[in-house]
Design brief:
Layout: E1 18-26, E2 35-41, E3 55-57, E4 60-63, E5 66-71, E6 74-81, E7 89-95, E8 100-107, E9 118-121, H1 132-139, E10 143-150, E11 153-154, E12 166-169, E13 173-184, E14 187-192, H2 210-217, E15 224-227, H3 235-240, E16 246-250, H4 279-293, E17 300-302, E18 317-321, H5 328-336, E19 340-343, E20 347-352, E21 360-363, E22 369-371, E23 373-378, E24 385-390, E25 393-399, H6 400-403, E26 410-412, E27 416-424, E28 431-435, E29 438-442, H7 450-465, H8 472-495
Parallel strand pairs: 1-8, 10-13, 15-16, 16-17, 21-29
Antiparallel strand pairs: 1-5, 2-4, 2-6, 3-4, 6-7, 9-18, 10-11, 12-13, 13-14, 14-15, 18-19, 19-28, 20-23, 22-26, 24-25, 24-27, 27-28, 27-29
């Protein structure tokens, strides 16, 4: 789709800027909607134009439905978006010297997740609280925990805490103003729904242990603690506490146009087994699957880290099913219950035997349980197949052209779990969607894999060896937490009922 606005500019010294009055409307309703634009010049370089009311970040900007852009004469290409439930509008225009042009662009919704009970959130946002209302509207995002305290940074040091700490904005959107992050040598934990920041400002790189702050957070019954990425070094330590609420499987190393192809200072992947660009995503997913293989019922989550990384707000998002209505408390409760889909691309709405993700199916020894998935799928980009992941292994790849309206059933004759995922073809990044897991328990017991429990035990041992021995008192306090975690994983190895 190409849109020509004005005439081609003359390449003259001192040519003045042109102005473009741009309006964006919903195609169905005709109403103005906030939007995000990625604008590039003829050399393919991102352009952040002048304009009142623009909120800019890295290679894009957002605006509230109507804006006057001031641009140097020239040729421009654009991509226009309103979150992943609308089709991307692409086009080009020419800006002429001193020209003033008006253009209205329509954006078309192709799926309405909220209408089907799914409400979107991004658990990892580093943007200014002053901008968040516009950003949420531009991205059609419903839940936004904004990181306002993070290691030594604390927005509330010289100002009163907001009251309430969670605000409901117009359009059924919720902002948690008191979200925080503890990001140090062991990795990053995200804290949601707290009444005040945790006292982490004086924490050192390794000490005190992040478990200390995890336990502090959990003194508040409504608090939610998220493992920001699966490959952080302290993941086995955190999982062993039994106090983790979710794990960021669609995380901030997955960017809109490329990946951050490393594990930061976390546990590195085998790049031969997990080559780029998909390797950084698949490694994280496999770690998450190991946790599920240990009988842990932890839902996946998603976060973009906009404000630190180039992602727009809500690029990586988790959809939580709460039905016709939502509240922040209900959204977090259903996130913890696993009624989720995580995505940065495909739109999945799954059920299995009529039930949402997070459901537990019970069986008895000698029986075979037959589970029938159904799935609604909406796409902006092509995917070739869906995958069934059962007990950590891809057991079925289903080409979309072969589905013909019905997915194959999946059978269990012993405890385990499964989920459905879709990965879009992209040469530079990873666009994927994954349902929360469904659990199967025979005789009331989960499946516990000896291999997966040993995986975390070995990892924990490797991490403990990296701890500095000084200061001695802090080392002793922290190593005590590691011993508790060691006992937890050893017990799982001993109690395993599956290879």
């Amino acid at each position: 789709m190409a849109i020509c606005l004005g005439a081609a500019p003359e390449s003259l010294p001192g040519a003045t800027r042109g102005k473009l009055l741009l309006r964006v409307v919903d195609k169905e309703t005709g109403r103005p909607i906030a939007a995000r634009m990625h604008l590039k010049n003829k050399r393919g370089k991102p352009v952040l134009p002048r304009g009142k009311g623009l909120v800019k970040w890295r290679d894009h900007f957002v605006f509230d439905g109507e804006v006057v852009l001031e641009l140097a004469p020239g040729h421009y290409e654009f991509e226009l978006e309103h979150g992943p439930e609308y089709r991307i509008r692409t086009g080009h225009f020419e800006i002429a010297s001193k020209a003033e042009t008006t253009q209205t662009l329509e954006l078309e919704r192709y799926v309405d997740m909220r209408a089907e009970g799914w409400w979107s959130g991004d658990l990892h946002i580093h943007r200014s609280p002053d901008e968040i209302s516009l950003l949420m509207r531009a991205e059609d995002l419903h839940v936004a925990p904004v990181i306002t305290w993070w290691n030594r940074k604390n927005r509330w040091t010289d100002r009163p805490f907001p009251s309430p700490t969670v605000s409901r904005l117009p359009g059924d959107r919720w902002v948690d103003w008191m979200a925080g992050e503890d990001e140090r040598e062991g990795g990053a934990l995200l804290f949601l729904n707290l009444p005040k920041p945790l006292p982490i400002a004086d924490a050192k790189r390794d000490y005190p242990s992040s478990v200390k702050f995890l336990k502090m957070a959990k003194e508040h019954p409504e608090a939610h603690v998220d493992i920001e990425k699966p490959f952080w070094w302290d993941v086995p330590l955190w999982l062993a506490t039994g106090q983790i609420d979710s794990m960021g499987v669609v995380h901030n190393h997955l960017w809109r146009d490329r990946v951050l192809d490393n594990e930061a200072w976390g546990k590195e992947r085998n790049r031969h087994l997990y080559p780029p660009p998909s390797g950084v995503a698949l490694w994280g997913m496999d770690i998450y699957y190991h946790a599920l293989n240990c009988g842990l019922q932890i839902p996946p989550s998603a976060g973009s880290a906009s404000g630190v990384h180039p992602n727009p707000v809500g690029y990586n998002r988790v959809y939580v099913h709460t039905g016709e209505t939502c509240s922040y408390e209900k959204w977090l409760a259903n996130l913890r219950a696993g009624k989720v889909v995580v995505t940065n691309g495909p739109m999945l709405r799954p059920k299995v035997n009529g039930r949402l993700p997070g459901a537990v199916f019970e069986g008895r020894s000698g029986e075979t349980l037959t589970l029938q998935p159904t799935l609604k799928l909406a796409l902006r980009e092509k995917i070739d197949y869906l995958q069934y992941v059962k007990d950590g292994q891809v057991v079925r790849s289903i080409r979309l052209r072969q589905v013909r309206g019905k997915l194959p059933a999946i059978e269990f004759d012993q405890s385990g779990w499964f989920l459905i995922r879709a990965i879009a073809n992209h040469p530079k990044t990873v666009r994927l969607a994954m349902t929360g897991p469904y659990y199967v328990r025979f005789d009331g017991r989960p499946r516990i894999s000896r291999k997966s429990a040993q995986f975390f035990l070995d990892w924990l041992t490797e991490r403990a060896r990296r701890l500095p021995r000084k200061p001695e008192s802090e080392f002793r306090e922290t190593i005590a937490e590691f011993r508790k975690a060691r006992d937890f994983w050893r017990n799982l190895v001993d109690e395993a009922n599956s290879p």
